[in-house]
Amino acid sequence: MSPKPLESFRQRLPGIIYGGDYNPEQWPRSTWQDDIRLMREANVTLVSLGVFSWSLLEPADGDFNFGWLDEVMDLLGENGILVNLATPNASPPPWLATDFPEALMVERDGTRVGVGSRGHFCPSSPVYRDRSQRMARQLAQRYGAHPALAMWHIGNEYHAQCFCDLCDDGFRTWLQGKHGSLDELNTRWGTTLWGQVYSDWNQVHLPRPVRGWVNPARELDFARFATDIQVDLYRQERDLLKSITPGIPATTNFVQFFRVQDYRRWAPETDVIALDIYPDPAKPASLVEAAMQYDLMRHLGDGKPWMMMEQAAGAVSQWKVNLPKQPGMMRLGSYQAIARGADAVMFFQWRASRFGQEKFHSAMLPHGGEASRTWQEVRQLGKELAALAELAGSRSAAEVAIVWDWENWWAVEGAAHPLNNYNYREVVAGHYQSLWRTNAAVDVVTLSSDLSRYKVLVIPNQYLMSPTQQLAVESFVEGGGHALVSYFSGIVDQDDQIIENGYPGGLRGVIGGHIRDFSPLAPGATVGITPASGQTLLSGTVQGFDDGASRWQDDLAVEGADVVAVYTDGYLAGRPAILDHRPGTGRAVYLGTHLAQEALDRVVEAVLNDAGIRPPHAAPEGVEVTERFTGSRRYLFFLNHSGSAAVVDLEVSGLELLAGRQVAVGESLKLEPVGVAVIRAGTEG
User: Fold this and answer.
1) Which of 349, 366, 391 delimits the end of a domain?
2) What residues are annotated to the active site?
């Protein structure tokens, strides 16, 4: 009997997995032996293979050529390197486009794309589905019992949004399944506005270009459909592979801050959560945003392993200016992923390409070869990770959650809002940065998640709230939870229709206030705010809000809440800016404006203090602290982002795993800039 996929994953891939995408087809056979030698030198344990190899494996329809892949699979297996074998459907071969042009994606404006990049397929195309599944079947039958096969890597960064007639038919069918009747669809989409009422299903289409704005409810349903159709595409291929290789885990790779796909719909379909992430060295906050993505992946997995499937060893090639990672930054970022639950550190790619669109994308083995700094750092990291093998499979526990919701992202950046330059990612990341500074453990959740395990819930601009989600927030606060809610939350339901009962209809009882009117601020404009006299939340924490507030103002009327802060100038001078309400046994703090980051930091810190949230260990500013648990063991990570040396006064005794030395309570642990320490606390040896 085959082991279950998770058991297989743990058995075949113990310890912290290390490796990256391997594309031997780009290189002559004479290079392969050198690759293997250097992989072993760097302690590579897993490579992703064949991601873009369809045109080589099947150069003509039904004409298969697996000889080169046989050689590579055998070579890797003989040298103890396992394979995450891809089904190469992300880049269909040119013959498919030539023989079956209907298999190509159509853009929103009606343009059918050509061959020359990747991801150019129509997810609804029967011939694309047939040929991609045929390829998957060939791979499973040929390599299913190969000793090097450890995982299936299905597709790559699914992201298609196709507007062809096939997808149009699929969207219509999807809508019929969701809404049942035209009357229901007309009601949900509010089609009486602007005379859009449908009288026959044949009149209902994808949101192709229209004169002016597309109906936002229609656009929202299309975004849901675009995710669902690709989940279905993935699921069909996964089920085929499972029928042939039931014990081999299967996954696909997610992308950081990716608006097109709702990964909460994807996560239950994968055995392992995998993330491709490329923090920009040019942006100081990029590692904070990366931490948020890691916390999201950990929560999406809900106990499954999660892997950093791709990162850059140095510079990438997609930005206007592609800065390299300074010495130690790749190592620091890798440990940050492990500190937040990852059981794998992998890269795109193993050997830097000599040609094509990504020839200047960094790699584990750069163009400069073994003499390069990047290779030296990659090799050293591979050796270090062997000391952390016991960490694999350990868990994290959080009492704080922040909401990240794809449906809300689609809706809150929709058309015809008080602010039409809204950036949901930026707002949520700002709230997360305030949490990150405290070193409190955080899960990234949705309001449909189980919230019972948390003491604090941070809700940044949750414009869209279903009735079930509204009830979840009410129950959380009334049951003793502490919530921090930002402006423009609880405004519309799941169909993007205004919730009755005035603003914020979905949260009016929770925040203890009523918004008389929205008052966005002009670009660059600010208003002053100051703590209200007699308030308790910020006492001793915030003496003032020196940078004021920007972007947004709510004209708030109090309905049972206490006033925490008021505006000091403008036409709302003296009116409430922040409310503090205590329904039931909990507490809800409402931000009616967009605070500067430092002020938001202080408010978040006050909310966490009030809820009794403490960091896992005290540390200086700029030192990130996290913890993982396995059985009776506790692992503390210290990561120095401060830019200068830092000293941590230890509150624990144990073994510092990277240095292999004992440490004790009261000892001063020195961290060099970009330094890392991992302490197994409370155990001997």
Assistant:
1) 391
2) 157, 310
